[in-house]
Design goal:
Mean pLDDT: 85
Strand content: 5-15%
Number of helices: 20
Number of strands: 14
CATH superfamily of the largest domain: P-loop containing nucleotide triphosphate hydrolases
Distance between the termini: 57 Å
Radius of gyration: 27 Å
Helix content: 40-55%
Largest sheet: 5 strands, parallel
CATH class of the largest domain: Alpha Beta
Low-confidence stretches: 163-172, 420-425
Length: 481
């Protein structure tokens, strides 16, 4: 019997949730948190859902009491979006299965509760196992190893949850209304529903990680982890251990078992940023895992199955890297199933005012200030700049201006006064991919968007029509309505 207890000092909240969930669960409600331990004991409650802000006892205080008395009870906390301090305390305290933001969504709440009841059964089995092993000397070491393994897995998951929470302002909706951004987002959301690998292409600072998070949150794996690793930030000697994990004693310094990202990402999403920096020796090993869905830890001989969805990102031209021999063609074809180009900021200048306002709103909330105006001259200066560092550079400029501003207006001083050369470096030279895009557009306009056949754009450009259609899709070229 799936029985849960909901504790909240607001009767309306109790009634609403009970009515919403009673079809699927036995729902007990309580407006006095001091009675929760008694009800859990008498009713054999398996899952506790509690509000954080209550007058007598907070949700975190109640959690600590329940953990001490009933360790198998799975605890979920409801909290407001801006209750950051409480959530950090919850993550540091440990033992909390999930936290949900108000107002809750019935579908998300149901999925979380189903997972919580599954977790309760697993906890009961673990507790029973530990109790059976107590006093049995010949199996004591085995019990210790299993407990230690479970602890390390929970620690890994806790680290991922902390990263998700502390990165929360980066997981906000991608800001912008430009046609080129909307086109890229449409591709991303459409691709999210499949399990195929996705390759995010774009310059540094364009927001490829935000796209990865958006794809994960719209996928069928959204209730599992999004595990991130930057291939450029990890030394070549450590990248294999990070991905595959290792057994205790596998090499010098391997003093304990380590779970790799392939294992942690099971049933979730693995995001490999800067995939172009992956060492050549590691590329066939990654390809094997993608093809076979299994691997072995370093120093181990047990085959471990894994099921994750791969999202890779790069600012390199991988086709050129394949030609140079620094990237394997078979891995490239495996990654390039669903390529999505994240546009640079210079191609979506109309989004700059919205992005600036978004950054200022975040800074106001973080700093407790109220900057609510941007002088037209300052905005024009931002709009004219070439932004080689894209959104990341814009964020840094806005934050610097914010810190230096003394009134209610964003003051962009003389320190940001790019000359024409700085604003438009090498103005007669544009990136190769942009040049290709413009060249294809000119051919399409000349042929009135006819691609195939006599006098079509493919014939004009002297390339295969299928290849041209592929390049049009990859470059995000759309026919005007």
């Amino acid at each position: 019997m799936r029985k849960l207890l909901y504790v909240d000092d607001e009767p309306n909240n109790l009634f609403t949730l009970e009515v919403a969930l009673k079809k699927w669960y036995t729902v007990l409600t309580l407006d006095d948190p001091t009675q929760a331990l008694r009800v859990i004991a008498e009713e054999e409650v398996k899952v506790l859902l509690t509000d954080q802000r209550m007058p007598n006892i907070t949700g975190l205080e109640l959690t600590k009491m329940v953990q001490e008395e009933f360790p198998s009870v799975v605890i979920i906390i409801l909290t407001a979006y801006d209750d950051n301090e409480a959530m950090l305390k919850a993550l540091n305290q440990g033992g909390i299965f999930r936290y949900l933001l108000k107002p809750w969504n019935i579908q998300d709440l149901r999925q979380t509760l189903d997972s919580a009841f599954d977790a309760h059964e697993l906890r009961k089995k673990n507790i029973t196992l530990i109790n059976d092993l107590v006093g049995k000397v010949n199996r004591l070491q085995s019990a210790y190893d299993e407990i230690n393994t479970l602890k390390e897995k929970l620690e890994e998951e806790n680290i991922q949850l902390k990263d998700e929470f502390l990165d929360q302002r980066l997981t906000a909706d991608i800001v912008g209304k430009s046609k080129v951004l909307k086109s890229a987002l449409r591709q991303a959301i459409h691709a999210a529903k499949s399990n195929a690998s996705i390759l995010l292409l774009g310059e540094t600072g364009t927001g490829k990680e935000l796209f990865a998070k958006a794809i994960h949150s719209h996928s069928n794996r959204k209730n599992s982890l999004l595990v991130k690793i930057n291939c450029a930030a990890i030394p070549e000697t450590l990248i294999e251990s990070e991905l595959f994990g290792h057994e205790k004693g596998a090499f010098t310094g391997a003093d304990k078992l380590k779970y790799g990202k392939f294992e942690i990402a099971h049933r979730g999403t693995l995001f490999l940023d800067e995939i172009g920096e992956l060492p050549l020796a590691m590329q066939p090993k990654l390809l094997r895992v993608l093809q076979e869905g299994e691997f072995e830890r370093i120093g181990g001989n047990r085959v471990i199955e894994t099921d994750f969805r791969l999202i890779a990102a790069t600012n390199r031209n991988l086709e050129q890297e394949v030609e140079k021999g620094s990237f394997r063609s078979d891995l490239f074809y495996r990654l390039n199933i669903l390529p999505i180009t994240v546009p640079p900021l210079r191609d979506r200048r109309e989004d700059i005012p919205l992005i600036v306002e978004h950054f200022i709103a975040l800074l106001n909330r973080e700093m407790g200030r109220s900057i609510n105006a941007i002088p037209q001259k300052a905005m024009e200066s931002l709009m004219e700049y070439h932004w080689p560092g894209n959104i990341r550079e814009l964020s840094n400029v806005v934050e610097r201006a914010y810190v230096l501003s003394t009134g209610s207006k964003l003051d962009i001083g003389g320190w940001f006064n790019p000359s024409k050369e700085t604003a438009h470096p090498n103005k007669n030279i544009i990136p190769l991919q942009e040049n290709e895009r413009l060249h294809i557009l000119r051919a399409l306009k000349h042929t009135k968007w006819k691609i195939r056949g006599k006098n079509g754009a493919a014939e004009l450009l002297k390339i295969n029509p299928t290849t041209l259609e592929s390049r049009i899709k990859k470059l995000g070229i759309e026919r005007p309505v």
